[in-house]
Amino acid sequence: IWSAGGRLIMNLKAILFDFEGTLVDFQWDLAGAVSATLDLLRESGFPLERLKSRKYSTLMQEAIALAAEIGYPPEKVRERIGDIYDRFDEDALTRWTLQPGVKTFFHLLPTEGIKAGLVSNVGKKNLEKALQKLGLLGCFNVVISRNDVKCLKPSGEGLTLALHRLQVLKDNALHVGDSLDDILAAKEAGVKVIAIQGGENRKKELLSAGPDRCIRHFSELSACLATLFSRS
Q1: pLDDT digits over 109-125, tens only?
Q2: CA-to-CA distance for 4 and 7, rounded, in angstroms?
Q3: Strand 142-144 relative to strand 173-177: parallel, antiparallel, unpaired?
């Protein structure tokens, strides 16, 4: 399963996975979270016309930057928006189900000496609950949540942090995700990226960002790896 033309794939040392839309089906209410966040900022006196972002993944950081300008404590903004996102994490948790083939794939990784990392924009509290509920506890050598970084994906901060903790070079790593944010984060971190359709963004949007590969289902991941990593 980990071969290309009969040769073992030797230079792949770590795979960093997204969670929502990648390992589980996409259930997060993006529009609802953005709406609730904008309501909070409006009520707190933020000039919304100065906020360009309408994406949950970049809205928090933009609001934090603006907070310092208008004299609002930046850490308070992070905390209050984080509370909103936690509520939407918890809502999605009630519906998340594993994608077909995920558990089988994770059973294979240790036998090949490949480390697994999880880098997610989901908060720590509900991410841990989800891993327990879905039987994925112990599958990852490192877990990076929203609470472990200053900037969510599309920033590459989380991926870079995961590789540092795994002690794996970016040239020996791969990111697997379902969104434009995943692709952009991987490019910033300097790692190859496989995009999976059916999550946050449609195929056309994913391809526009230039992933190394784009596959339809998680179950295609094993075959796809052989085309990216092989013994030099």
Answers
A1: 888 889 999 999 999 99
A2: 5
A3: unpaired
* Nearest to 66, CA basis, from 85, 87, 44: 44
Give the number of residues written for the chain.
232
Task: Label each residue of the chain as H, E or C.
Answer: CCEECCEECCCCCEEEECCECCCECCCCCHHHHHHHHHHHHHHCCCCHHHCCCCCHHHHHHHHHHHHHHHCCCHHHHHHHHHHHHHHHHHHHHCCCCECCCHHHHHHHCHHHCCEEEEECCCCHHHHHHHHHHHCCCCCCCEEECHHHCCCCCCCCHHHHHHHHHHCCCHHHEEEEECCHHHHHHHHHHCCEEEEECCCCCCHHHHHHCCCCEEECCHHHHHHHHCCCCCCC
In the prediction, which pLDDT does 169 show?
Answer: 97
> What integer pLDDT is reported at residue 228 of this predicted model?
75
Residue 113 CB partners (closer than 8 Å, separation 6+): 13
- What is the amino acid identity at position 147? N
> What is the per-residue pLDDT across 187-231, written as a single tens digit (0 to 9) for each?
999 999 999 999 999 999 999 999 999 999 999 998 888 777 654
pLDDT at 49 over 50: yes
Predicted local confidence at residue 10, as pLDDT: 63
